């Protein structure tokens, strides 16, 4: 979905989505090893362990896939037409033709080829595993909490109908489904931690100081599951996101980070996940072997995953 909607690339080219998935999985594993295991910060250990070579190998593969995507786009006839059509480019940045993000990068910016590649890289890395991991978590919780699933199903049927197209105007009315997505991102935040360069000394009080030049990691997954910030933190309760029900500090919930480097895909991905959930839940019931979220052990890294997978299965609804 990301390749087609944001990049405007037809999925049928050379199995791109599968290859990207494999490469990103490896890069996530290796980056997590490098950043979380202190000895891997020592260059010579990283080199001798063979991991540096592996990392470079996967980076090269990612670059070659990205090049392929860009080349494919450059040959795209529609794009050539967009380039020729000066009036589209000259207006106030909003045109009637629907454009993918990559079309805009290629036709409306002064970025050079390397900069475009970097943008595409960032987007591919940031947009794909985060989304699939969150969708996996959503189906798992729907499988565990059948009452939540029933309410999601009812809302989808009420708003969209048992059949038919799902349209943008339907999406904002899927309020309960949105709360389920938010609550899932609380207990299973796809990005389990992110870090920042500390630009100046920070005094946190109680003799805790963070020195300028350090890296500070924000442990999102611990914050989201901390009883200090959340009542019954391990209870799955979408209604904690009902408007006006909470007085917690807004920065205790950071699935898309905050500040100038936060996720720019939050709104897009919430819509995308509502569409996927609606399309799946209308014809299918989902079940999980897990009985509660507490049972699910997590593999923590930069990305969060379920150690033993989602353990879900689907069954066609009988009408
Ligand atoms: C459920 C899915 C997603 C989650 C949980 C998520 C989460 C995050 C988080 C926590 C960050 C900030 C990392 C940091 O502060 O260092 C981030 C950055 C980013 N995300 Fe997402 N993201 C998701 C989907 C997407 C999608 C679909 C897109 C693209 C359409 C996207 C594009 C980006 C980009 C470009 C950045 C980097 C922003 C920057 O460095 O300025 N994300 N994401």
In short:
The protein is mainly alpha-helical and 319 residues long. It contains 13 helices and eight strands.
Describe the structure.
- The protein is mainly alpha-helical and 319 residues long.
- The protein has a domain at 136-319: Cytochrome p450.
- Helices cover 50% and strands 9% of the residues.
- It is built from 13 helices and eight strands.
- It has helices at 2-5, 16-36, 43-48, 51-74, 77-84, 86-90, 101-108, 113-144, 146-160, 168-171, 175-187, 220-224, 266-281, and strands spanning 194-197, 202-205, 208-210, 215-218, 284-288, 298-299, 305-306, 312-316.
- The strands form four sheets. It has a two-stranded antiparallel ribbon with strand order 1-4. Strands 2-3 form a two-stranded antiparallel ribbon. The protein has a two-stranded antiparallel ribbon with strand order 5-8.
- α8 (113-144) crosses α9 (146-160), α8 crosses α11 and α9 (146-160) runs antiparallel to α11.
- It is globular and about 60 Å long.
- The model is unreliable at 86-96 (pLDDT under 50).
- May be involved in the metabolism of insect hormones and in the breakdown of synthetic insecticides.
- Heme binds at residue 263.
- It is a peripheral membrane protein.
């Amino acid at each position: 979905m990301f390749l087609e909607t944001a990049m405007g690339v037809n999925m049928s080219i050379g199995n791109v989505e599968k290859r990207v998935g494999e490469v990103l999985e490896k890069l996530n594993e290796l980056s997590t090893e490098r950043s979380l295991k202190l000895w891997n910060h020592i260059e010579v250990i990283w080199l001798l362990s063979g991991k540096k070579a592996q990392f470079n190998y996967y980076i090269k593969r990612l670059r070659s896939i990205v090049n392929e995507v860009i080349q494919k786009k450059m040959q795209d006839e529609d794009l050539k037409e967009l380039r020729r059509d000066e009036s589209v480019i000259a207006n106030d940045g909003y045109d009637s033709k629907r454009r993918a993000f990559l079309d805009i990068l290629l036709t409306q910016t002064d970025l050079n080829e390397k900069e475009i590649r970097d943008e595409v890289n960032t987007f591919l890395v940031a947009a794909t595993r985060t989304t699939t991991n969150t969708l996996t978590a959503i189906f798992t919780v729907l499988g565990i909490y059948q009452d939540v699933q029933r309410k999601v199903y009812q809302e989808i049927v009420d708003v969209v109908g048992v059949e038919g197209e799902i349209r943008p105007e339907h999406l904002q009315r899927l309020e309960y489904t949105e709360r389920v997505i938010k609550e899932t991102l609380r207990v299973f935040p796809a990005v389990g931690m992110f870090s920042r360069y500390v630009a100046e000394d920070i005094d946190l009080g109680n003799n805790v100081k963070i020195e300028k030049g350090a890296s500070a990691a924000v442990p999102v997954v611990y914050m989201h599951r901390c009883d200090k910030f959340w009542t019954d933190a391990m209870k799955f309760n979408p209604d904690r996101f009902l408007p006006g029900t909470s007085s917690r500090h807004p920065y205790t919930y950071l699935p898309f980070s905050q500040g100038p480097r936060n996720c720019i895909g939050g709104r897009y991905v919430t819509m995308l996940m509502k569409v996927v959930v609606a399309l799946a839940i209308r014809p299918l019931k989902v079940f999980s072997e897990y009985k509660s979220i507490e049972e699910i052990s997590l593999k923590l890294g930069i990305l969060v995953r379920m150690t033993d997978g989602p353990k879900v299965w689907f069954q066609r609804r009988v009408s």
